User: What shape does this take?
Amino acid sequence: MLVSEHLRKEFKNVVAVDDISFQILPGKIFGLLGPNGAGKTTTIRIILNILKPTSGTVVFNGQNISSNLYNKIGYLPEERGLYKKSRVKDVISYFARLKNLSAKETVEKTAVWLKKLDIPNAAERKIQELSKGNQQKIQFIIAVIHNPELLVLDEPFAGFDPINQQIIRENILNFSKEGKVIILSTHQMETAEKLCDEILLVNKGKEILKGELSSIKKKFGGNFVKVGFKGDPGSISSCNSVRHMDSYNGYAEIQLQDEIPPPQFLREISSKVEISHFSVIEPTLNKIFIDSVKAGGSL
Amino acid sequence: MRKILTVARWEFAEKVKTKSFLISLLLTPAIIIAFTILPALLAGSEGDSTEVVGLIDQSGLFFNNIKAELEQYQIDGYQPAYLLVNFSTTGISLQELKKEADSMVIKGNIEGYLAVSRNGENYKLEYRSMNPGNLKHTKRFEKAFNNARIKFELNSSGLDPEVVGSILSNVDLKEIRLDKSGKENESGFLEIFFTSFIFIMILVLVILTSGGMLIRSVVEEKSNRLIEILVSSCTPEELLTGKILGLSSLALFQLLIWSTFGAALSGYNMIPASAFNNIGPMFIYFILGFLLYTALFVGIGSIVNTEQEAQQVTGYLSLLLLMPVVFAISTIENPDSELVKVLTYIPLTTPAVMLLKLNIKLVPLQELIITVSVLLFSIILIVYITARIFRIGILSYGKAPNVKQLIQWIKEK
Assistant: This one.
């Protein structure tokens, strides 16, 4: 279990992280979300012991975070890059050995992972000869080859095509099944929505929203409906029951006024447009994210 | 410790495969030969063809003697280096002779000519040529004329020509350096040149190439953020030590290859064996100098962000490095001067100065101990400071820090 308490990091003129606390249980995928410059990377660096916090503590499996834990941590940074002119197996081996794998284990696991990620013949090639997607796979392997207990993934899907995104997603889910603690930092809300059990939304260094994804959705999910229709969108949005409406391509996602039950709204609009679809929906994380960040304060 | 070795092994294995290593391995000896041995060889060697040189001497006193003096210079041991042609003709004024000779020079018929004239007691000697700046020629002509003149004057004062010959014979000075055991070592210019100068050149070039590689590797890791994976796998101190260790092994490996060749050449008497007399202490100064500068280079590598910035800083550091080379001549000439004394104890110049001194004079044990201690202390200090800068610098992007920030980094817990 990873416990972070009251993390605070001050740089010269800015407070990058301001009183952030969270707990992650083994087997849970924890989404660290927020816009650019929110303090995600600083938080991650503190967890990884790359940066010392100004105050606050990080404890992993009962131990204060320190260089003793390095071999149990796997990290995939957001900005990718590798030693371009070196051979794939040499690069993987360097990082694996730094995580204290033996030479023998390193060779075995390299082969296993290259196969798992569908690039079994890459070992002898130079990094620069690989496609961008395959280079990213090598970075993923570097992050996980030592079978870390704590896995920190910063934008793990950036740069992957949908097929490879699927492969990476499956592997992340496998790690979660094995009981690893996984932190996933992203601003792709769709990714977070599909993978995370819990989320922490940060902005300007502060916590904005925290908790289980399902309960957060419930909390925000009061009164959303999706309508498929033919006709003038204006005739729907002009209704008093509508608090907010996003329409696209003959569909509209509508947030109703709190006191309006959806069936009543359906009756109200059925006379105005021809309805092909009507459903009650949960708000997307994307919407929660945008609304929360715009609102700026804590909720 | 294991992680330090892993880093060191990686740095060594990756750098040894690079083109820049191969280039430096081949180019360094080439540069050294170009800068040291070649000029010495060129200065000592004759041109390819005999130079035709004229002489205008209306007195007619000197032609034979100058001709005899110039005959000692030969190309390949038999062909004369100079052919002296007498242009003196009685009845024609010096001015007109010169005019005629000038036109021969311009047409390329002769390389140049000497014109002797006399004004009362004083002789005047001119060498007129399209290319009068050749020091080798002019020195010889001057010497030849003066010897001829002295010979003439001594002879005309009534001295026995044999006595005159013996007065004029030149005596060369040979330097003998005594070592502790009283053993004699011939230490000519060439020996000093070979040992000290080449060692300093090697030191400078090895530091430059390895230091450059080191900076480039840190800058690369910074720019592709690999540094973040690295410092979440080992501590910055381990990374720093590993890098220095790896690059030092690389430098030693380079040195080993060169010394093997050097020793082989020494076997063919191309390099004097005495060049290796002080190899022990020289090796120590070499290593310490290397470590000192390498630590500096890593520190700098950690605060710059781009290769261009890195190159700029490397440029300045190289100037620092080259300073002892600038002072090398004056050190050889006077190893006890105040300037050399000061440079001996400035850590950045200590290694190079000591490399020079060791071959010129007997360095007192006390001085050896003090300089080595100064170096060791500075290395520890620089590694300590560098480690503190490194740990923050590697994670800072954007503008390079100013001095005030750097001091803050060093102090930061």
Remarks:
- Chain B touches chain A at residues 2-3, 6-7, 10, 13-14, 18, 220, 223-226, 228-235, 395, 413 (CB under 8 Å).
- Residues 2-41+187-411 of chain B form one domain.
- The mean pLDDT of chain B is 80.
